[in-house]
C-alpha cells in the first residue's frame, strides 16, 4: 500500500506538473483547466517521461552489453540495414548517416574493427573505397538487443487503429517542435 508520504514524494518529482513546478502561474496559465484535466495532461507527460526513461535504460543496457557508444551502435545498425538491402556499406555512407566528419568516422571504424565488430574489405566495384562488413556475432547481438526491442515497438504501434496512430503522430510531432530553440 502506498503511504501519503510516498504519494507526496512522487508528486513532488513531477516537475512537468504546473501544480508542482509553477504554482504561481508564471510560466503557464492553466486557469481554463480544471484539476481533472490538468491531471490528465500530466498523465500524458508522465507516460512520455516513462518512455524516455525506459528508452534510456534499454539503450544503456545494449551499449553496456556490446561495450559500445551511441554512434557505434548507430553505425552498426546502419551497416546491417544497408547490407541487408544488398548494398555496400562504406565509410562515406556511415559518415553521412551519422553526420560526423571523415576523421571521426575513421576513429569510429578503427574502434569497431579493434573490437572485432566489423571488417574492412575491398569494395566490390570501387578500387578507391572499402566496404564495411559487420561481424556475424555482432550482428546476432545487435538483433537480439536493439532489433528485438524495435520489433516490440513496431507491434505496439501496429496494434493502434489508424486514427490512434494519427493522434500519436500529431502529438509527438508537435512535442518535438517544442524543443526548437527561440535562441538561435
TrEMBL record:
InterPro entries: HTH_MarR-typ, MarR/SlyA-like, WH-like_DNA-bd_sf, WH_DNA-bd_sf
SMART domains: HTH_MARR
One Pfam match: MarR
Sequence ranges assigned to domain HTH marR-type in this UniProt record: 35-177
Entry-linked PANTHER family: HTH-TYPE TRANSCRIPTIONAL REPRESSOR YETL, TRANSCRIPTIONAL REGULATOR, MARR FAMILY
Protein's name according to its UniProt entry: MarR family transcriptional regulator
Native species: Protaetiibacter mangrovi
Amino acid at each position: 500500500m502506498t503511504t501519503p508520504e510516498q504519494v507526496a514524494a512522487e508528486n513532488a518529482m513531477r516537475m512537468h506538473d504546473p501544480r508542482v513546478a509553477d504554482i504561481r502561474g508564471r510560466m503557464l496559465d492553466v486557469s481554463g483547466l480544471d484539476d481533472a484535466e490538468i491531471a490528465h495532461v500530466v498523465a500524458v507527460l508522465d507516460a512520455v517521461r516513462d518512455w524516455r526513461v525506459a528508452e534510456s535504460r534499454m539503450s544503456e543496457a545494449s551499449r553496456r552489453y556490446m561495450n559500445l557508444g551511441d554512434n557505434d551502435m548507430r553505425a552498426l545498425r546502419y551497416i546491417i540495414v544497408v547490407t541487408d538491402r544488398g548494398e555496400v556499406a562504406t565509410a562515406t555512407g556511415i559518415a553521412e548517416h551519422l553526420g560526423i566528419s571523415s576523421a571521426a568516422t575513421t576513429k569510429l571504424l578503427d574502434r569497431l574493427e579493434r573490437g572485432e565488430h566489423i571488417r574492412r574489405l575491398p569494395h566490390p566495384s570501387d578500387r578507391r573505397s572499402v566496404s564495411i562488413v559487420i561481424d556475424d556475432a555482432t550482428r546476432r547481438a545487435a538483433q537480439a538487443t536493439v532489433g528485438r526491442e524495435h520489433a516490440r515497438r513496431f507491434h505496439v504501434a501496429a496494434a493502434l487503429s489508424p486514427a490512434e496512430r494519427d493522434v500519436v503522430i500529431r502529438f509527438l510531432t508537435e512535442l518535438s517542435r517544442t524543443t526548437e530553440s527561440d535562441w538561435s
